[in-house]
Amino acid sequence: MKKTSIILPLVLLLAISVRSQNTGIIPQPLKVYKVKGSFTIKSNTPIIADSANLENANYLKELLIAEHQKELKINKGGGNGIILNLDPQLTDKLGDEGYKLKVDNSTISIFAGTSTGVFYGIISLQQLLEKDTLSKKANLSVSGINIEDRPRFGWRAFMLDEARYFKGMEQVKKLLDKMALLKMNVFHWHLTDDQGWRLEIKKYPKLTQVGSSRSNSQIGGWDSEERSNAPHSGYYTQEQVKEIIAYAKKRQITIIPEIEMPGHASAAIAAYPWLGTIGELNEVPTVFGKLPDSFNVSDPRVYDFLENVLSEVMGLFPSNIIHIGGDEVKFDAWKSSEEIQDFMKENGLASPADLHIFFTNRISNYLNKNGHRMMGWNEILGVNVHEWQDSMDMEVQENLAKNTLIHFWKGDLDLVSKAVQEGYDIVNSYHEYTYLDYSYEYIPLEKAYGFEPIPEGLDKKYHGNIKGSGCQMWGEWIPESKDMDKMVFPRLAAYAEVGWSVKARKDYTVFRSNLKPFLDRWKEQGITLPEKFERIVFKENR
Fold it and tell me: Taking a C-beta distance cutoff of 8 angstroms, is the pair 255, 317 a contact?
């Protein structure tokens, strides 16, 4: 699977064939030509693929069995059928993820320069099958069509927060399936936070023995004193993580782990109190929000701990990007610590924000030395994006390492422009449009669909620095998977089209029409959808 950090900017030189149309495909393809005829998949229809496409052929075979009760044989020879064709010369035209799909009376052909491209051609085929079999026809047929397609952005992410509420392997695999069907390629896995540590680290067993469990949970909102009175726990063993990684890889999804530091670290500090600055935490917090303690970044033992943790994380996850969080660090603990104040003087650090950048750069250097790239929320730039932060604490002299991938979520959009002009790469997840825990009243489906990752007015020479976008499912108030489903679906489909389709191909009315087969299928699969996901009740046209 390709390295996510070397995503090249997409130069959109391809002419757009026709205006967006009701293909039944989400995200909307780049070029679509409808042609006469159709192809019916019969029990004796072969999947024709050479050894380079065998994994994709098996995926298609399993898909047809699971979704359409049709078991096909895989042949290596020629002839008619469903042809999977890998042609490296097509990479120049289609990129690493593009494909061509042709359906006529004799064959279904998928051409691509890479196995990833072939996979996405299969996904489009699956969507066409869903569209053409909605009437429950006996025959599994696909109408004649020519598609040439490639994504606008190389980073199309969904984030799952399991630190607050552990969801488990079955739910994660279900989400990966849905991401794959929407051509989303990055699963951002938020595995640690104040309220839970969800990843086995063999060198530090207390991280899961202690840090994965809390006695109860805050309910009723941010200012509530009410508690659930029910314990919550859960974590993934490294063997389970390997299984999930393999599952994601088959679906062309890269998993980016997030290990929060230096703030949002209370679960780790509860496990090993010497990690903290305040030194008073002896259990995993039961409240949500921004908690006071952070890692003691003046203590050499803390750096040894973090490097040891990251070493296991790097050995476990194939991705060369590690997300370190870095958001919402409350500086009061650092300001009140004589040890940290002395450390700042010794290192010529004038403000807590300088200390934050100093720490972040040290982690970045460690990751870089080990062939990895650091990613973090945009507070790591040293900019003040919070009303509760003292402006004097944010007077910055240090500079963040240029190789850092900035995950923008909060602040003025001008900060994005400023960051790319300074040479940083950006993944744009502006919370006003992309936070799935926000209500449909705040982010209705159309608003989610209308998100534009490239800020208005940004000079075209910097567009390549915008690597893509992500949507985030924060979990503080969503303990049950069925409640999470209501927030994720159908907005996930909107974000998928934001990441894949060029602006000229996007059309909300067409998207709504193409969404109908997805809604039907999700309901069949037991996914609970919201009653309202726009400002009006959605009414299906039957």
Answer: yes
3-state secondary structure of 269: helix
- Give the SS3 label for residue 370: coil
Locate 299 and state its tokens.
Answer: 């203590």
Model confidence pTM above 0.90: yes
Q: How far apart are CA 269 and CA 261, in angstroms?
A: 11
All domains of the chain, ordered by start, with CATH?
Answer: 4-149 (3.30.379.10), 160-524 (3.20.20.80)
Reported as a single tens digit per residue, the pLDDT across 255-312 is 999 999 999 999 999 999 999 999 888 899 999 999 999 999 999 999 999 999 999 9
Q: What letters, b where the CB count within 10 A reaches 16 and e where it falls short, cover 382-408?
A: bbbbbeebeeebbebebebbeebbbbb
How many whole angstroms from its chain centre is CA 225?
Answer: 33
CB atoms within 10 A of CB 536: 8
Compute the distance between CA of residue 534 and CA of residue 440 in angstroms, rounded to an integer. 6
The token pair at 317 is: 């996850």
Q: Do 235 and 162 meet the contact criterion of CB atoms below 8 Å apart? A: no
Whether 200 and 238 have beta carbons less than 8 Å apart is answered as yes
DSSP states along 194-254: TTEE-B--TT-THHHHTTTEES--B-SSTT---B--S-EE--B-HHHHHHHHHHHHHTT-E
